[in-house]
Amino acid sequence: MNEAEDFDPMEAEVSRQDPNPTKYTIAKEISRYQSITNQNGMLPALGHLLMFAHIVRIHFNRQSTIRDAYNKHLQTHRPRNVPKEVKQRRKLRVSLHIRRADSCGNNGIYEKEASPIDSNAQPTATRKCYQTFVYMDALKRVESMAKDRTIEVYLSTDHAGSVLHEIQAEDAEFFERITWKVLNYGRDIFSYMGNDSLVIEDPTHGNHGALGESAVTDLWLLSHGQVFIGHLGSRFGKIGWLLATARYNSFVPFFSVDGHSYCCEIDEACGEMIPYIRHMQDCMTYYFDGTDIEPNADYWEVGTTVRRSFVEREEAQMNKSANKKKKKKKKKKKKKTTTTSEEMEQ
How many other C-beta atoms lie within 10 A of the C-beta of residue 17? Predict the structure, then answer.
């Protein structure tokens, strides 16, 4: 890290990790990791995930300006008239990522159901957005499983105000049971779709500084969730989920409305690619731009299938190498047998 980070009261309260570890607790944690390695000395799937998440967290080192911006814009909407016994219940923190604006490439159509894992790929032009109640259905499922815990939602969206009003209008009773935390940035910084600017990356709209700040602070907001609801078919959503995983040093359960798990590329048909995600290295480190395989010609219709081509080529090379070794071994064995026969004849 390039600076020591402050550990403000809210973060200390939300985190389960000891902000002041002793030599004993560090040694205990190292011993725990050593105990879960397999016989080959390799970490299991969770170990790979945690290692990757902590690397992301180390890179995500907030400067003082970002910490100040986060604290400045953070707003909390708390339930009113809450009984004392309810206030004393443990909290369950839920990260909620709702995509809007230029993320919705499907002709402005908002889906009424979450996409299953075997749904079509979502390249930029056909990327889907979902009705707010799709996310609320997932949140209500989480609430029903949380039993005697109160729900605290960390909402990341570029329509925070309108989304909250929509939730309240549709189900006021549910809205008032939940604590909502949002970053209140003015709508003007998200108005980049005029003047021929259609996407957030367009260099002509002039809001890059404010948009960058709001993105980084929103990622930090998402990192507080012990459960994640949103989009893992989004690089933004993936980073938010990884930061939460690092914060709690454990797997964070997720409900991904776009039919993606973390292991799938954002523009893959996730279900079709599952057979080609063979191990955690494929899950955590594969990206098609890192291969020398040309994108498939029908990319805009079916998404990227480069992973399949990459794995099939790699396995063909491995099989070829294995067969070559097998033939070499067989030839060596045959030569040895022939030599032994000749010696016996002599």
Answer: 13
Q: Report d(CA 54, CA 60) in Å as an integer.
A: 10
Could you list the pLDDT tens digit for every one of the 346 residues in the chain? 334 455 555 555 555 555 567 778 778 777 766 666 655 667 788 888 999 999 999 988 878 888 899 999 999 998 887 777 777 888 999 999 998 766 675 566 889 999 999 998 888 778 888 999 999 999 999 999 998 899 999 999 877 778 899 999 999 999 999 999 999 886 555 555 555 545 555 666 566 677 788 889 999 999 999 999 999 999 999 999 999 999 999 999 999 999 999 999 999 999 999 999 998 888 988 887 888 899 999 998 889 999 999 999 999 999 998 888 888 887 777 766 666 555 656 6
Burial state string for 206-236 with b = 16 or more CB within 10 A and e = fewer than 16: ebeeebebbebbbbbbbbbbbbbbbbbbbeb
Q: How many helices (H) and strands (E) does the chain have?
A: 14, 8
Q: Please state, in angstroms and rounded to a whole number, the distance separating the CA atoms of residues 283 and 281.
A: 5
Give Cβ neighbours of residue 22 (< 8 Å, ≥ 6 apart).
Answer: none
* CA-closest candidate to residue 154, choices 74, 53, 239: 74
Q: pTM of the entire structure?
A: 0.80
